[in-house]
Amino acid sequence: MEKYLFEFIGTLILVLLGDGVCAATSLNHSKAKGAGWVVIALGWGLAVMMGVLVAGPVSGAHLNPAVTLGLAVAGSFPWADVCGYIVGQMLGGFLGACLVWVFYKDHYKATADQPDTILGTFCTMPAIPNAWRNFLCEVIATCLLVFVILALATEGNAFQVGPVSASTGAIGSWPVTCLIMAIGMSLGGTTGYALNPARDLSPRCAHAVLPIAGKRDSGWGYSWIPVAGPMAGAALAAALYLLVF
Description:
Helix content is 65%, strand content 3%. It is mainly α.
């Protein structure tokens, strides 16, 4: 239960800061409005880093159902814990998104005439709707994410200081932070790089239930893609990892 709790807390922090940077750069009268894609990519990378720093020592800080699935398929995580981790992550993502709405409530009111902008602060929508292309983009981006995370723990990325051995991934969140930033800047232009059902579906549910002035529908017709794409990409990454390494 302690591990599940820390997955909840870490994912809450991730979404609070990640959706927070989307709100800060998009909502009317925000001092950060218009700061742009680079700030969003940096903000999401650092959001992941902060969540990992909190949850990492206890749960390993997956903070993402796709990462949990990928590690389980690769044999690096027990299947018995998969469900508990995912429940914690999804609940954390929901509460994190609710806190963003509370924090920026006045700015959401000031942006009530821009329902698409409001939705974009909670979850992803494609730049050009094309279901199978959008799905493929999420598969490729998440496959890259999980494959590199798995590679960080390989022997070639490990080192030893005295009696202590560690991998690059085990000593800190910086490599994963850089990876998230790189994916956002390089592969985020098509779908907004969800990569993570807890980052997309949970905030989308929050958007659906919160009393947000002027909001549109929550994009349910697209909502399967940021869930199925990352989960498929993670499973593919695990298979490729087992094949290559």
